[in-house]
Amino acid sequence: MPPLPPVVCEDDALIAFDKPGGLPVASDRRDKGRTNLMGLVHAARGPDVANVHRIDPEASGLVLCAKTRPARDFLSGQFQAKTAEIIYEALVVGSPAMDLYTVDFVLKEDEAAPGRLCVVKKHGRAAVTEIRVLARFGRFAHVECRLCAGLPHQVRVHLAASGTPVLNDSVYGDGTPLLLSGLKRGYKGRDEERPLIAGLALHVGALTLIHPVSRERITLQAPWPNDFAVALKYLHKYAK
Q: Tell me, what CATH number does 183's domain have?
């Protein structure tokens, strides 16, 4: 069995993990045998630890769990009430038209593709994502996305519908890879070049909410995955 992902914060009431991309938070009804975060947590920490929110399996970053029932009720209530703030970072394909903007496209499940969301004018669910450009790199950009809780895939759909899909998004993206040869002049490398990032370039870097015991507002943070950090290093060096 794989080891638990890194713990970024823990006390008597809660524990937060830095989930790697590609690992589902919980069991998937379409693939019940697939390894998932909560299965690893229950095996290592016991069945009482419960996740209070989820992020997409392909995304990396913070997943918060409660260690007691009162903490679970208090924390999950903040996500349901959309008072918990989630901050994503993403590398996107394209250059946003503005440095700071809000996307509020209404979303619903795509009836032709279960598990996928689509933008609709009505009869969907309201969703708001605030997007800020952190850096521009020609054909790519580094952005921060803030939302109060949210729908599965919300950030990915909002970015794609705005013309800047997340890099390596196999569902909503355009298939553009991030290659060092496309950034560095005179590149001399392998004939079969690998992308700088192979997985979805979407990371939950911070969560802000009220602690279930102290009732103080806290912010939890998780560092970039290694490939995300390496890609940003090369983008800043060769493409900015």
A: 3.30.2350.10
User: Domain residues for 47?
Assistant: 7-239
Rounded to whole angstroms, how far apart are CA atoms 110 and 116? Answer: 6
Catalytic residue among 11, 12, 48, 56: 56
Residue 175 lies in a domain: yes
pLDDT at 66: 98
Measure the CA–CA gap between 166 and 59, rounded to whole angstroms: 11
The structural domain count of the chain equals 1
Rounded to two decimals, the pTM is 0.93
Q: Which residues of 171-204 are buried (b: 16+ CB within 10 A; e: fewer)?
A: bbbeebebebebbeeeeeeeeeeebbbebbbbbb
CA–CA separation, 186 vs 9, rounded Å?
44
Q: Given the structure tokens 């007691």, which residue do they identify?
A: 68
Mean pLDDT for the chain overall: 93
12: annotated active-site residue: no
